[in-house]
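Exercise 7b. Backbone tokens:
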């Protein structure tokens, strides 16, 4: 026997602590998931060049080189270099090989190359 009639209360009044608690719990779960994803992400590997410049052998190209051409002169897969020397009228041909070394050759060209 109630003296006063029972007043119906809306959901948000009866459970006013439940909605913020669920929201806080959801945000906490999202924060943990994002933290795990960012924490376990692998960092990019930084490669350090130990020896950037290899020692090279000097290659004789003649006197006063005036122009050069890069091409595959001996029909292999390695780049070759042809250098025209204006002072002594010669052409130097540097043939590339699989060790990435240019080998010097002097082809016969005649009296006055053009």
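Sequence design result:
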């Amino acid at each position: 026997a109630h003296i006063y009639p029972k007043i119906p209360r809306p959901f948000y009044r009866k459970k006013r602590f439940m909605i913020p608690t669920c929201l806080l719990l959801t945000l906490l779960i999202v924060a943990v998931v994002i933290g795990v994803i960012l924490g376990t992400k692998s960092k990019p590997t930084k490669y350090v060049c130990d020896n950037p410049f290899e020692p090279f052998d000097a290659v004789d190209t003649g006197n006063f080189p005036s122009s050069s051409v890069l091409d595959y002169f001996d029909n292999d897969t390695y780049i070759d270099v042809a250098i025209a020397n204006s002072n002594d009228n010669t052409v130097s041909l540097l043939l590339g090989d699989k060790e990435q070394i240019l080998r010097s050759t002097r082809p016969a060209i005649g009296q006055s190359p053009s």
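Instructor comment: The two ends are 123 Å apart (CA to CA). The longest helix spans residues 18-39.
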